[in-house]
Structures are given as C-alpha cells and as structure tokens.
Model the fold of this input.
Amino acid sequence: MKRAIISDIHGNLTALDAVLADVRQQGAECIYCLGDVVGYGPNPCECIDRMMEVDVCVLGNHDQAALFDPDGFSSGAERAIFWTRAQIEHHKDPRNPDRWDFLCELPRTHREGDFLYVHGSARSPLHEYVFPEDIYNAKKIERIFSLIQRYCFQGHTHAPGIFTEDFRFQRPDQLDDENGYEFDGQKVMVNVGSVGQPRDGDCRACYVMLENNRINFRRVDYDIDETAKKIYAIPDLDNFLGDRLYEGR
Done:
C-alpha cells in the first residue's frame, strides 16, 4: 500500500491543497494525518473539512487546545487558538456540521502492526518534542525507543528526518532523493515534517510517502503569499505567523 503521511497543517489551506494534489499525483492509496490540523493558520474550518475525509487522523496538541484550553502556549499561539475556536463555533457548514465531534473523537495514537503513529512521541503522544539535537540525550532517546515496537511516525517539531536507535539523525537532504530510506528491521522514528509551517529552513510544505517499507520525503511548493496575506488581515493572528512562512522557521 502506498501511504501518504502528513502532519502539522496548522490551518494553512493553501499548503494543504498543494500537498493533497501532490499526494494524488504520487498515486497514494490512503492518507494518514499526525495532528495539529488547526492553530496558527487562517483556515482552520476548511482544513478540518479536508481531514474529515482522510483514512486516519490522530490528535495534536493544538487540536486539543482548541477543544479545551491552551496549556503552556506562547501568547501568540494562545490568541491564535482562541481565534480558531471562534471560527469553528461561528462558521458552521451544513455540509460538515460535526467539526467539533471530529476533533473530540481523534485518538492520541494509532497502531498497525509494527507501525505507530503519534503527534509528539511514543512516550507523550501529544506534548513531547523530539528534536534532532536529542540524539545527544541518550536517556531520552533510549526511553522513547523502548516504547516503540518497530517504527514510529511523528510530527510536532516541524523538523523532518529520521532517528535511529544508535543515536543518529538523518535530514531529508542527507538521503537519496530517488531511493529514500528503507526500513531494515531496526527501530526507527520518522518525523514527517510540517505541511503548513515548516521549520527546517525550507519553506516548502513537507510530508512523507511510505511504500513497501521505504519512505521518501516530499517537498511541495505552494503560494506562501496567499496564506501570509490572510494572516496579516486577521488582527488576532500575529504577523510573525505569516513572516515565518517565508523563512521556513
């Protein structure tokens, strides 16, 4: 099965639609989303509507914050969440009346055989960040890998790459573009990057294609101006949230 794995859309509809078009072009048979459908971006309702149609979606910390209250968020992220909540409450669409129900019912994890899908980490599915520099924190990496049966896909940091049990991290640009990375039975964590707000210095949307135990990172251009202008036009969304899209930070 050819599977697209996306994460961290953050209300960026323009980026999401570009990625979904690329997914179709690649011939994916199903789409899995690792959460944070909303937060930061200007089109939360439309992004929820798109994700209501994918095969699997797990809960992200921004999705949870929209349902309840933001915990430990920066002031800008908190304002964005309260604005997002208002959009979902006040812009009901008779075609998709159950956006709140969809978010409420999202699981924290999804497991299929050797494959685990989470937003943050196997240890803390919603909240734990696993950064590339954590390869130097042996206790943290060892503990997380002890909770993984074989392969774990995650997001949350917006920094794509592959963690191996021998404390290595490989960025997408360190992999063969054509052949990607093939699972060989050793435990692996894969951060699939972000669709709506990349933070690895590359402003293009990022996702992963999985086929026959081989993964490839896909980078997709989209109209950043379109998303940034929407953000700038909304007083409750900090201009910084639009500025950072151009830098991939």
